[in-house]
Amino acid sequence: MSVASAVKVREYYAKNRDAILSQKMEYYQKHRAEILENKKQYHEVNRESILPKMKVSYVRNKEKRKQEAREYYRENRERCKIKSKEKHQKTREAWLKIIKTMEMDKCVYCGYDRCFDAIDFHHINPLAKADNIAKVMKRVPTKAGVCELSKCVALCATCHRELHFMGDISGWQPQQSQQPRRSAQKH
Questions:
Q1: In this structure, is residue 172 part of a structural domain?
Q2: Is residue 69 part of a domain?
Q3: Nearest Cα to 98, choosing from 121, 82, 118?
Q4: Is 176 a domain residue?
Q5: Greatest CA span in the chain, whole angstroms?
Q6: Is residue 56 domain-resident?
Q7: pLDDT in tens, 150-167
């Protein structure tokens, strides 16, 4: 392309910028699913070559990105708070569904099930612990997170504290007591 034709292209683009952007947006809206699928497939196939470039780009522009994020938050504080709450709620609901499926929504020792927030997850074998389960459950559920949860037993806060206070937790095995120490009935 010659210099003269490049100048003409720039002039044309400058004159028709809004129309060109409108056409691009319209095309994107019509073909959004296809474009995103193609992009996803490309990233899967070329993952090894793309990741290093992305890391370099991130490191080079780290401060700029942080500043942009701060400015965006300042301008959209309420929207960010709402989105954060929605994301937290979806993550919590996803984990609750998994926990109920695994039947870990009540204390294995005393049967307490009144308030899920009073249920703790205790690693049966502390040496097999790969991650802190409380931190894992703040993230979106993954196979690794579910695997970590499967290394635990559900205990109410009281039973969990008593277990740790007794000291010998390595040999402890969950067992169902004949009579619950307190009512598991909902009030």
A1: no
A2: no
A3: 121
A4: no
A5: 90
A6: yes
A7: 999 999 998 888 888 876
